[in-house]
Amino acid sequence: MMCSYCDKPVFYRRRYSGENLCKKHFIKSIEGKVRKNISRYLGKYKRIGLAVSGGKDSLVMAYIVNNLVKPGGPHIYGLIVDEGISGYRDKSIEFAKQLLDDLKIPYVIGAMKEYLYVNIDDVMEIADSPLPCTFCGVFRRRVLEILGRKNKIEVIFTGHNASDISETILLNVLQGNIKHLIMQMEPNNGFIPRIYPLHNLIEQEIVLYAYLRKINYYDNPCPYARYALRSEVRNFLSDMEWRHPGITFNILRLGEKLKIEYGRQLKLKACSKCGYPTSSKICKTCELLETLDKLKKLNIR
Ligand code: FES
Ligand code: ZN
Ligand code: ZN
Fold first, then answer.
1. 30, 87, 199, 264 from 37: Cα distances, Å
2. Which residue's CA is minimally distant from atom 1 of ligand 1?
3. Do 242 and 132 have their domain in common?
4. Is 222 in the pocket of ligand 1 (CB under 6 A)?
5. Dist CA 116 CA 34 (whole Å)
6. Strands 107-111 and 47-51, how do they pair?
7. pLDDT for the residue 264
8. How many domains does the chain contain in total?
9. What's the pLDDT tens digit per position in 230-264?
10. What are phi and psi of 260, to 5 degrees?
11. Which of 49-58, 102-111, 273-282, 291-300 has the lowest mean pLDDT?
C-alpha cells in the first residue's frame, strides 16, 4: 500500500480518517496539527511554560513546541512537578531533564512537599483510601500554578492528548459529575491559562511519533494507578477506539457540545484560606489539605 500523499510505502494507517501515511507524511501531519493548535499562542505570549513529567506526551509536546519556536519568538521554560512518588516520579524526572537539557530549554523543578508540606507517598500513608489521584491531580495543578507564577509564565502548555481528554469526559459521566461536564471558567479568572497542544492527537500516534523522533521517555505507569477508575476507562476507550476508529473524537465533540449548550460560567472568588481563585468558600487544595490534617489527627490509616 502507498502513502496517500506520495509514492512511499505506508507506515501508519490513520483509521479514523482513512489516510495512509509514510513516515515523512506521518511526522509532517503530527507537527502540522500541533502547529495549527498553538501558532496563535506563540505570537501572543512572551513566556511560555511547558509542564513536563518525563512521559511520552509531555516530552513529545516539548520537542515539537521547541521546534516551532523561532529565534526572537517566545521564551519557553520547562516546569516539572515532583509529586513525591518514590520509584516513579524520581525516575521519570530524569528523562524530562535529559530531553530539556538536550534541547537547551531551561527548567525548574517544584517539589509538592516543599510547597504543600505533603506529597503523594504521604497521602497514601495518611489516607489509604480515598484515591490518591484526587489529591495528586489537585495538588499537582496547584504546584504547577505556583511554579508558573514564580517564573512569570503567561501560559502553560500541558501534554494532555485526545485520549486523556475523552477519558476525563467519560469519567465525569460515569461519576455523574455534571458540574465538571458543563462548567466553564470565566476568562481572566486569575489562573495562568492552560493550553493542550496535543488535544487532537490520539495516544497511539504520540507513541509512534516518539519512536520515529527517537524521544526517550519514561514508560512505566504510576504505582497508584491500580486504584484509579481512570485506568479502567482508559483500557475500555482504547479498545473501543481500536474497534470503532474515531470514537475518541466523538466523545471530545460531545464534551464541547455539552459546554456550549448547557455550559455555565463559574464565578470565582478568592479562597478564604490561601487566596487562590475558587468557586467555593475554600478551594479544593485547602479542602483536601484539611481532610488530610483531620485524618492525621484521628490517626486513621
Ligand atoms: Fe493516581 Fe498516580 S496518583 S495514577
Ligand atoms: Zn508520503
Ligand atoms: Zn485555598
1. 11, 34, 8, 25
2. 133
3. yes
4. yes
5. 34
6. unpaired
7. 81
8. 2
9. 889 999 999 999 999 999 999 999 999 999 998 88
10. -70, -45
11. 291-300
